[in-house]
Write a structure and sequence with these properties.
Layout (H helix, E strand, L loop, with lengths): L2 H16 L13 H20 L4 H21 L6 H22 L19 H18 L4 H11 L5 H8 L3 H21 L1
Helix pairs in contact: 1-3, 2-3, 2-4, 3-4, 5-8, 6-8, 7-8
């Protein structure tokens, strides 16, 4: 088959792969038997690429690109000894290149220091509001006794249970519960004023 015949067939193959009555696109002067063989080889190549991890669309694109490269090569150099092997190797190389380029796009080439990263922290007005709330709570807790503050902080900040606080301070569990209740009452009243 000469290059002109092959070049004319390239668009016909593309249409043939999309049409149900594919053979109406094949010119009458071309022997149909080699065309069936070529179409079968291209179908096998697409299956091979799909088994190797390409999507159906990528496999189709890779096969078409391999055909274009085959035609370009035959135009420059001349005849290819084994067109099937040429197409298979070209399609596999293109698949590898596609895989590498898709992996390359996942990474940012710039150093982290240069990148503009989103600040996932709270906005400045939220930080200010939280600081103001803490100051109001501190003032409210300053109204209770030193022992109540100490018990409340041991429970809330250190995570100690009522029994552990009672043992540590040498008081009853009921006294610890009363200290925590009075601190929470003061904080609740302050919270309702907001």
């Amino acid at each position: 088959m000469t290059f002109q015949t092959a070049e004319n067939l390239s668009w016909r193959l593309k249409k043939a792969s999309l049409a149900k009555d594919a053979w109406k696109y094949v010119p009458h002067r071309v022997n149909v038997a080699p065309m069936r063989v070529l179409k079968n080889q291209l179908r096998q190549l697409k299956k091979f690429l799909r088994r190797r991890g390409s999507s159906p669309q990528d496999a189709e694109d890779l096969v078409q690109e391999a055909i274009v490269r085959l035609f370009a090569y035959t135009r420059k150099v001349g005849e290819v000894r084994n067109a099937e092997a040429f197409l298979a190797r070209t399609a596999m190389n293109l698949a590898v290149d596609l895989h590498r380029s898709s992996r390359r796009d996942r990474f940012e080439p710039e150093p982290v220091e240069v990148l503009e990263l989103l600040d996932l922290g709270p906005a400045p007005d939220e930080v200010f509001a939280a600081e103001q709330r803490l100051l109001r709570m501190k003032k409210a807790l300053d109204q209770v006794s030193r022992r109540t503050r100490e018990v409340f902080f041991m429970h809330r900040l250190q995570g100690l249970s009522h029994a552990e606080i009672a043992t540590k301070l040498g008081v009853s569990k009921s006294a610890v519960e009363k200290h925590i209740a009075s601190a929470l009452t003061i904080l609740t009243i302050e919270r309702q004023r907001e």
